[in-house]
Amino acid sequence: MKILCLSNGHGEDIIALRILQELQKHPHSPEIAVFPLVGEGRVFAQLETARIIGPVQRMPSGGFIYMDGKEFLRDIRGGLIQLTLAQFKAIRSWARTQKSSGENCAILAVGDIVPLLFAWLSGLPYAFVGTAKSEYYLRDENGLLRRKFGTWDNWSGSVYLPWERWLMSRQRCRAVFPRDALTAEILQKLGIPACDLGNPMMDGLSPEASNPAFYGADAELREKERPIAIALLPGSRAPEAYANWQVIVEAIGGILSAMGDRKLLFLGAISPELSLEALRPVLESSGWRQEGEIRGQRREGSILRPPISSAAEIGKASLNLQFPLSFVRGKATMILSQNSFKDYVSEADLAIAMAGTATEQFVGLGKPAIAIPGKGPQFTEAFAEAQSRLLGPSLILVKNPAEVIGAIQSLLRDPDRLQLIAENGHRRMGKPGAAARIADCLMQRLSGFEI
Predict the structure, then answer these.
(1) Which of 371, 334, 367 is nearest to 356 (CA)?
(2) Dmax over Cα atoms in the chain, in whole Å?
(3) Domain span including residue 296
(4) Is the domain of 377 the same as that of 240?
(5) Rounded to whole angstroms, how far apart are CA atoms 297 and 332?
(6) How far is CA 16 from CA 13, 357, 435, in A?
(7) Cα gap 201→347, rounded to integer Å
(8) Cis upstream peptide for 115 (omega within 30°)
(9) What is the pLDDT of residues 290-324, one digit of tens each?
(10) Are residues 308 and 331 in the same domain?
(11) pLDDT at 54
């Protein structure tokens, strides 16, 4: 059995990687090839036996052509059409070679209509992991939502358009894996072979080191005295993420003014694509003082483990990660790290978020996130509004940095709302382990092996 995995974006690459790693654990593990259609697909270096079958290239937009016509034109000038044609030829060539050899082979498409279309055009059996769309953009369990942008999106009865559903309903499409139960339910009603197996985005987020939460006779007192931990998620692509960081730091200033008498812990989960040093000037101009490099930080009731534990861990990242930086301002501490994402989101009570995937993962842990629209190209007002529909009450959308402190104070005064947010996040993003469940289903649907 041979599987070619097509993906179109950094987040899609990570989801594909998790599924492929689970496929490699199968006793009848297929031979795997990969083809990242957007970007260079660096994460696939973790699959030692997988090869990239065709040309890859980083486009000027970073993959956000759907959000801005100018970005699309930049990609056209950067060679998008020529690259797409070359990628299509590479896929057809791979399919012909495998079919002529007489081996059982299939396509796994991860992302949106582009890899799905290429999978269909290959002439091979295929499966689709839909990462980009959710019925929650249009409706929740109670019915259709009121919209600010794109009010005609439901004209066909689903967030997936008729031509997308046509591709998913072909006989050669053996399985479709939507990102949530609501989307799976709608697609099933429309005759699509959709499987509700969860969202791989929630896999691998459990911290490697954690202690039980507060317990004992003085549990309530200790909870009141502990620092409030706030995750900072500025996004992953420069220069937008640096502009987002300035907005987040402005919001933090308002938090310190209103809550300066309480210990606060800010945890900056910074993408390896960014530079920690580039974030320093904004902090220093806002009154933060650097404490120096740190190896770890302990907080009562939990542990923040050292962000980099070994040279091998650095090597796996295939990027030049910097050691974390620690800053202080009054009773507040801020730690910036490039490879402690899962520990920081697990540690944090809430987040200030101007990101895509990272925000969704945080909400999936059952926690509230506060979003501030930026100037884009990704995190615009339209994107933030759409994300607030996707995530429901778990995402609190404010208009400007000054409103963040009010949103936090409102949350802290309403434990019933926090419980609702926890239940909502878990329901919309699903339980961990989806990649393994999807891999098992793929082996059944594509190769006929029983699990």
Answers:
(1) 371
(2) 72
(3) 219-429
(4) yes
(5) 13
(6) 5, 14, 9
(7) 18
(8) no
(9) 985 444 444 444 435 444 333 333 333 434 456 79
(10) yes
(11) 87
